[in-house]
Amino acid sequence: MRRLFSVDILRATAILLMVQVHFVGNLSSREPSSRILYDLSDFLGGFAAPIFTFLVGLSVWLWLNKQLAIGTDETALGKFIVKRGILIVFFGLIFAVIIWTPNEIFNWDILPMIGITTMIIYALRRAPSKYLIGLALLLLLSAPPLRELTNYSSHWIYDDYMHSFTLSDILLGATLQGYFPLLPWLVFPLMGFCLGRDIFQGEQINPKAARRLPILGVVLIAISAVGALVSEYFPTGLSWYLSPYSFYPASTTYVLGMLGFILLVFWILWQRFDLREASKTPDGEFIRLYSKFSLTTYVVHHAVHMWPIYLLAAVNRRHDIWYYYQNAVSTPVAFVLSIVFIVGFYFFLRFLDSHKTFTLEGILRKMSES
């Protein structure tokens, strides 16, 4: 099965949206003079993590599908997946230390969640899709009451997650209270895996399953919109589920809306590009490289825009290393810097791709295969 250009487009879009929202959100604040640009950046950034995590599940299936088709031993597949998952969790924790300081090691950013999710999906790979969808629904519905039961709000000051270094806080952070806890973020990769398995079977495509995607996407978007509107204009006692869109925590309406959007857009892109003959599919080097090296891009772009903040504080003898956080430049400047990074880093990715040199993807692959 040839590489799906639709997946490359979605993954590249996700990482590029992450770059711009992190530059704007971490380097600038929401000032009246640039409020529209800041809000637009924040809005677009809200699509990045759902797309990225959905593609984790889809990519696991596509990889398994390919490996099983060429006769790879299933025991070897299991070892590879488990090693890869553990390594991603480890890299995620190290990333938190070197980018966000040691106190943030257990903030449960997106990388540890992806590593844990990869192993969970592999463990559940033989479960029928209807059971996995049921599990996803259970996780989605149980997340809001469990957050309230565990006093989620006491761990958050604005958009900053606060925790102690106790075992209970660490486990709660990973499952319910951190930046990207399993409940409800595991919903996206579970649905991505189900979509991949139901549509792509060996080298065959299930047209009936594919035709359901746009319908399901529109239905989920409609349910999400109705839930958000009802919560605003007709408040009820169902605020766990009928609530405004929220990223921290990921509200039920937000998860449903993002999932519907991803299904719909994936179907459109798949119809537009992947069902064509290979010779007619665009090369799209820019998209391909940002998709292929999305992990490297994720880590490097954080270092590029966060380390100068710490250095600036040290040079100016500020006791608080966070002094310039969200206060380094204006929003327009931060946005322009994100574009400069995206363009400049593209040429660096071309160098990496042509010389097969150091990338985090390559390190992960070699360590997982060893």
Structure, described:
The protein is mostly helical and 370 residues long. It has one domain (5-369). The chain has helices spanning 5-27, 35-45, 48-69, 74-100, 110-123, 129-149, 167-177, 182-185, 187-199, 207-233, 252-274, 285-292, 294-315, 331-355, 360-369, and strands at residues 156-157, 160-161, 200-201, 204-205. Strands 1-2 form a two-stranded antiparallel sheet. A hairpin with a 2-residue loop joins strand 1 and strand 2 (160-161). The chain starts with a helix and ends with a helix. The mean pLDDT is 93.
| Strand proportion | under 5%
Averaged pLDDT, please? 93
Largest sheet data: 2 strands, antiparallel
User: SSE order, as H and E?
Assistant: HHHHHHEEHHHEEHHHHHH
Determine the number of helices (DSSP H or I, runs of at least 4 residues): 15
Please give the number of β-strands. 4
Helix content: over 70%
Shape category:
globular
Radius of gyration: 21 Å
**In order across it, which strands form the biggest sheet?**
1-2
> Uncertain runs with pLDDT below 50, 5 residues or more?
none
Structural class: mainly alpha
Taking the alpha carbons of the first and last residues, their distance comes to: 26 Å
Our count of domains comes out at: 1
Give short descriptive properties of this protein:
15 helices; two-stranded antiparallel ribbon; globular; 370 residues; 2% strand; mainly alpha
